[in-house]
Write a structure and sequence with these properties.
Blueprint lengths: L10 E6 L5 H13 L6 E5 L5 H11 L6 H25 L3 E5 L2 H11 L5 H9 L7 E6 L2 H7 L13 H17 L4 E5 L4 H15 L1
Parallel strand pairs: 1-3, 1-4, 2-3, 4-5
The protein binds P1-(5'-adenosyl)P5-(5'-thymidyl)pentaphosphate.
């Protein structure tokens, strides 16, 4: 499923803390590939992206008690459905897939944030043959900036976690970047909308 040749279909993910601004920029990323891939672009998200996945997303985000391992397995259940019925078929048709959050979020949020560690996630990923994206844009912001952008919005179950949790999540993302530097582009995302948009354009052009 990997495809890095110029003009080939690309599997692109956007990652970052809640409030990092990645969802705001996803339209820009999709537009960039729409102009370059005549076969089209599929914009999708995790958890979600399928009917079953969206139902699992509701369970994950609604308030209530969920054991961290249950949370992890629900994310993988949604991911398998997403890969099998949306991501892989779109890539097979030559489309570009742009995904708002994917596998790195599991390492950051469940592996580091929840403290489950990376071995369990590595093991499940291998067992289920979860493909990696070709390119991941990681929107890096200090936790204080991300939290500041969410002031006044109601928090879902995961967003309701405290600052220490999101510090661990950020640490998890940074560890992923260090481990796989060729796949990631770090977008400094604490600046203005225009500055972040410029950084996204530069990253996408550089990857062509
Ligand atoms: N999750 C997900 C896991 O725990 N494990 C996993 O494996 C996966 C896949 C998803 C939750 O699920 C968790 C992580 C999440 O907590 P969600 O609602 O989809 O829930 O969460 P997010 O994807 O984080 O969506 P958010 O909307 O909260 O965050 P974004 O996408 O980072 O931020 P965005 O673009 O919506 O912007 C937030 C606000 O900031 C403003 C925007 O206008 C908006 O108001 N903004 C800026 N303001 C100033 N300057 C800028 N540069 C700005 N950019 C955006």
């Amino acid at each position: 499923m990997k495809s890095t040749a110029p003009g080939a279909p690309l599997f692109v993910s956007l990652e970052g803390l809640d409030g990092s601004g990645k969802t705001t920029q996803i339209v820009r990323v999709a537009d960039f590939y729409e102009k370059r891939n005549p076969k089209g672009v599929v914009v999708t998200r995790e958890p979600g992206g399928t009917e079953v996945g969206e139902r699992i997303r509701n369970i994950l985000l609604e308030h209530g008690s969920l054991h961290p391992q249950t949370e992890l397995l629900l994310l993988f259940a949604a991911r398998v459905q997403h890969i099998k019925t949306v991501v892989a078929p779109a890539l097979a048709l030559g489309k570009t897939v742009v995904c708002d959050r994917y596998q790195d979020a599991t390492y950051a949020y469940q592996g580091y944030g929840r403290g489950l560690g990376v071995e369990l996630i590595d093991g499940l990923s291998d067992l289920l043959a979860v493909p990696l994206p070709d390119l991941t844009l990681y929107f890096d912001v200090p936790v204080s900036v991300a939290l500041g952008r969410r002031v006044g919005r109601s928090a879902d179950r995961i967003e309701a976690e405290g600052e220490a949790f999101f510090e661990r999540v950020r640490e998890g993302y940074q560890a992923r970047v260090r481990a796989q530097p060729d796949r990631f582009v770090v977008i400094p995302a604490a600046g203005s909308l225009a500055e972040v948009a410029q950084a996204v354009d530069t990253a996408l052009m550089a990857h062509l």
